[in-house]
Amino acid sequence: MSNQDLSEVTVTVNGTKIEAQPGEMLIAAADRAGIHIPRFCYHERMSSVGMCRMCLVDVDTGRGPMLQPSCMVPVAEGMVVDTESDDTKRAQEGILEFLLVNHPLDCPVCDKGGECPLQDQTIAYGPGESRFVEEKRHFEKPIPISDLVHLDRERCILCDRCTRFADEIAGDPLIQFTERGNSTQVLTFPDEPFSSYFSGNTVQICPVGALTAAPYRFKARPWDLEETESTCTTCSLGCRISVQSSRNELVRYLGVDVESVNHGWLCDKGRFNFESINSDDRLTTPLVRDPDNQRQLLGTDWGSALAAAAEAIGQVGPQGVGIIGGSRLTNEDAYAWSKMARSVIGTDNIDAQLDDGLPAEIVFGLPPATIADACEADTVLIVGPDLKEELAILHLRLRGAATKGRTKVVQIGPTVTGSESYAQHSIRCQAGEAAKTLTELLGSGDPLAQQLRDGSVVTILGRASMAESADPAISVAAVIRAELPHATFLPALRRGNVRGALDMGLAAGFLPGRVRIDNPSKALLQKWGEIPTEQGLGTTEMLQAAVAGKIDTLVLLGADPLCDFPDRKLAAEAIQKAKTVIAIDNFVTASAAQADIVFPATAYGEQSGTTTNIEGRVSRVTQKITPPGSTRDDWMIATELAWRLGGDLGLTSKEEIWREIEQVAPSHSGITFERVTSDEAHEGILVQQSSIDLTLPVPQDTPIADGYGLRLISGRKLWDGATATAHSPSLQHLAEPPTLKVHPNDLQRLGIPSGSEVRVISTRATENLTAVADSNVQRGTAVLPFNQPGGGANRFIDATAMINDIRIETL
Amino acid sequence: MKFFTEENSSLAEEIIGRYPKPRSAMIPLLHLAQEQEGWVTDEAMAEIAELVGTTSAEVLGTCSFYEMFKRHPVGKYVINICTTMSCALMGAGDLMEHAELRLGVKSGSTTADGMFTLEGAECQAACTEAPCLQVNYRHQYRVTTNQFDALIEELSSSDHEVPEHGVLSQIRQHIPENRFVGVVPPEDVTAAPVWLNDNGSDQ
Ligand code: SF4
Ligand code: SF4
Ligand code: FES
Ligand code: FES
């Protein structure tokens, strides 16, 4: 709850005076005062419905005490409340007796047993025995309502939490109360499952064991669970989670309610992909290429793998080494690699992004906004990816702000997105031409232009498509800076700790603390010694240099360019051409399979440290289980390699690394280890300052498409071929195979029936795909998801082009 | 495949047009669907969801709340025998037993020829005329077993006025266009609609 002025209404609860906000529900005021009123249906992040009547209390507003549901009664001055009166107790006993009339009480085989509000409140407030001797109602149990969620209607107490969440919060009203009276039950429509990206939240908020999640069912009992608070690093939003394990295996994540980020919600991808950490496919020992059979990787010991890697790095000059990736790493690991690259190897060829985000200077140089800023702004302008697919909880927060608050969401982009349903305006532009559309809009007399000029504006800026370079997004930034100087920005970067990696200097030309390489702090030079002064290469340039024979050793820091870099052909050639490819990863990814030396790294839940979300918010990730095999933290691999290269990073623990970061990174100064590990870090510590001067280029024109081609638009889907999803048994089948979506008229013009196989031709590749007509796709464009299993759009994309076109032909 | 016939599709559009928010047309459209088919099929609910811009699950939630929307095939004539207090005292139990024997089906089921569905119902607000029943929601008062048999005879012949189950045409209203609220959502309405002033007494 926010700490606004609380001193407006005084209510007496159980003889104690408490302060409450006008309009606030009695139950919420009591909660803040530490007085617990039992409840089932009330949830502080959803609207009150008064379904269960468990929260009845004696309320006296001057006319004598009366039982009223405290979740539906707003506080009023002078209200006298008794939550422990005889009447209240009798009401509570009655309600519980009623609720248990149809409840099966199969606690011994119920996943919720031990952490069940119905169990707990029955013991605390229940009558002890029931007068009901008739037959309870019976249903088939449990029934799957989606691939991930099972429903046991016998246990359901009809609190409306799941259905309310689906409608009000997620915007996917796919589960409903059906029938009436004694037959009321939660159901989906026949053959239309509850396939919401947020379905797992209903399992977490169900106050009984009626909803259970497939990945956790019968895995553990609550009293066997150990838990630690941590931060999700599946995407760059940094939702707070509780990581729970049993017998040294991760079994469940739950959302933790923090005001600044996730409000307790998680997307299903973040919630359930813990399965991948437990996967048998995890990399547990170092691998090297078999000298006798070049197509095979062989297990080896750390000593020889490290020696081989040190040799490969040492024998080429600093300019011959390129380091790609790092967004999987914690801040501390990223710092160690940043230091390793600059002070030991002596190279600035380093980039945490796979040319799929925004240049570091754009991220650092634009006036920053937080998620909360966005949710309080007059207008949120989205020019970037489909947030529902790529930053799911940001989508949820914006949806909440737009549907419950006064924030207006405006999006400009080439495709239909998940934000359409709550956007005030969804302005369709040609691919890569959002800047042009925005300029036209601002130059017009449209009331929207006025709205943008007069009110507060937060821009969510990113790449609308992986088939375009960062230039179109930069052009948008330039227009906004020039025309709407009051607007602030939230970068829509997607990979885990990408923001932290950039902050730690995993970007060519930047040192830890968001400073340019030609402007190192004294403290940094003291710790790092000599460092390169010239800006090095970014990912695309490194891959090009590898193809050109200028980079011989490529280090893949948890990066899989073959799947995640927009241009597969370039990535494949670079990996092929480089003399040595060193991969550090959790799995043998497509790229790691081509590497010469592979190091197994510890994964999420196996290491502690900090992570930074897109706002620049630093929060803790915490170790819960012991890492498998001989995996090591990324920073340890850096120190070991440094030592073998004759250097010394001088880092011996994560704590020590953070202390050094605090000293050398100007933006992080004052954010001490003590603060990062204190209660303050529960909400995360916002690091916003940055001293970059940013000159934005003049917006460039997008090349005109020829009349035969279709402009390729490629975004990511929540369920795609991502490594963690692919290695989670419950999730892997959720990713749909790739289809090319084209406007029906364009297909007709080519004489191609919808659903048929076509030949797709780009400057990079010619391959077959299924083409489907979709009238939501703009004419002249083709939409292909970026990374679906069975073939990604990266085959067709040229990363050096501002925009990519394809042609399709009948077979 | 579309569920609504062409004629009903345009009627559906007209019905939706009467409301400021398409979702408000959900129940009238469910009636329309039931009129077309005699009951509400899954296809109908899915199509209504599309027409009013919501999910099929929401339409199911609404539809299943109401006893009078049937989600399974019913006979041409649905006979509801009141089984509540007054009727029970006046012999509804015997009447039901007789009806079951006469039609050869248990309460809650439909005769094999698809003519009759027999149901027990709650009070039909005609307690002074107990025992009573309804045929497609048309009252029959103080029904004796003989009268019941005669009723079945009559319904089996073509000489009666009871329309088939679901038919609403006799009570359907046609609202003249100038009385439409239009597509303005209620919260945006600032002045009284014009037609309010058409009537002298409103001025
Ligand atoms: S939901 Fe709770 S009370 Fe019900 S069976 Fe499960 S543990 Fe027992
Ligand atoms: S399934 Fe759970 S959350 Fe949903 S209504 Fe039933 S008890 Fe409430
Ligand atoms: S918590 Fe108040 S009625 Fe359910
Ligand atoms: S009891 Fe039968 S009509 Fe009222």
Task: For the structure shown, list the relevant keywords.
heterodimer; A: alpha/beta; Ubiquitin-like (UB roll); Rossmann fold; 4 domains; 25 helices; globular; B: about 200 residues; alpha+beta; Arc Repressor Mutant, subunit A; Glutaredoxin; 4-stranded mixed β-sheet; 4 strands; about 40% helix; elongated; binds iron/sulfur cluster; binds FE2/S2 (inorganic) cluster
Shape descriptor of chain A reads: globular
Question: What is the CATH domain class of the largest domain in chain A?
Answer: Alpha Beta
Report the C-alpha radius of gyration of chain B, rounded.
20 Å
Q: Record the strand order, biggest sheet of chain A.
A: 15-14-27-26-25-16-17
CATH architecture of the largest domain in chain B: 3-Layer(aba) Sandwich
> Looking at this structure, what is the CATH superfamily of the largest domain in chain B?
Glutaredoxin
CATH topology of the largest domain in chain A: Rossmann fold
Explain this structure to me?
The complex is a heterodimer of chains A (811) and B (203). Chain A has 811 residues and is an alpha/beta fold. Chain A folds into 4 domains: 91 residues, Ubiquitin-like (UB roll) (Roll), CATH 3.10.20; 245 residues, Rossmann fold; 132 residues, Dimethylsulfoxide Reductase, domain 2, CATH 3.40.228; 101 residues, Beta Barrel (Barwin-like endoglucanases). In chain A, 26% of the residues lie in helices and 19% in strands. In chain A, α7 packs across α21. The longest helix of chain A is centred in the middle third of the chain and has 15 residues. By secondary structure, chain B is an alpha+beta fold. Chain B folds into 2 domains: 66 residues, NADH-quinone oxidoreductase subunit E (Arc Repressor Mutant, subunit A), CATH 1.10.10; 80 residues, Glutaredoxin (3-Layer(aba) Sandwich). In chain B, 39% of the residues lie in helices and 9% in strands. Chain B is built from 8 helices and 4 strands; from the N terminus they run ααααβααβββαα. A 4-stranded mixed sheet of chain B has the order 2-1-3-4, covered by helices on one side. Chain B is elongated. The mean pLDDT of chain B is 89. The chains are: A alpha/beta (811), B alpha+beta (203). At the A-B interface, β8 of A face α3 and α4 of B. Bound molecules: iron/sulfur cluster (SF4) (2 copies) and FE2/S2 (inorganic) cluster (2 copies). The site of one iron/sulfur cluster has 13 residues of chain A, from α3.
